[in-house]
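With this grant's support, the team has encoded backbone shapes as discrete tokens. A representative record is reproduced below.
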Amino acid sequence: MAVPHASERSHNNLVSAARTRARRRLSTFLNYGCLTLLAAFFLFPLIFMLVSSFKPEKAIFDDLKTVTMAFIPRDANILNYQAVFDRVPFGRYMFNSVFVTVATVGLGLLFNSMIAYALARLRWKARSLVLSFVVALMIIPLEAIAVPLLVIVNDLPWIDGTTGWLDTYRVQIIPFAVEAFSIFLFYQFFAGIPRDFDEAALVDGASPFTIYRTIIFPLSRPVFATVAILQMLTMWSLYLWPLIATRGEMVRPLSIGITAFYVQNIRWGQVLAFASLVTIPVLIIFLIFQRWFIRSVAASGIKG
């Protein structure tokens, strides 16, 4: 049997390597092609919303007859955006949304993480029962408890001696500061941290809160980022609760402000302009922190 010459073996290896590179390039091209089509599929509604927000009312519907014209800013102007600020107190709505979202996320990170720390790291009676109760709460939608919750907060006192929380900031913040899904995410992450850290700290005389602050928190930054981003998205788009719990423009968020454009004569250009102003901040935040968000989700063990 003839033994291949060294030069022939080298040629065969080069051919094999070239074929491998070609297959990898083809696979990469197909992957990026599919991802590009998928991204375009999800971006088309956003692009249409943004482009149409600069068009006159008549041009929006005329351009819908041609697919390409629907995404071209023909006769572009900012009249729709000017109308948004003229018809509603947009600045006030924006402040309310930002304040409620930031306050809820901040309190939520503190309370939810401390509850999860007690469930995952401390030993006490009925811990398993409380954890089961938290998991059960995850399947209850807000719509099922909105009316009973509204009755409760309507009779609650406040530190200034008044009774009733309706039409205030606190009614939009405090009921959502503690959230079952966030507790479960924290619990899942905290339970995976080795207990050797806790035992070493206890030997040195550290208290449970010191362990939480100096050991658990620094090791859990990915899950803190995950919970913060997910809770921010939830609070920013929350609609049902502020609709029934607030009555005046002074405390209502952006999600309720858009309803002012659906009364009597609807101007879709103004509606799209308002929607663009609501959506753009969220897109900017996601684009800035998308890598951090993806890493935090992966590190937190969230599975779809």
Notes: The mean pLDDT is 85. The domain at 90-266+278-300 is CATH 1.10.3720.10 (MetI-like fold). The chain is about 70% helix and 0% strand.
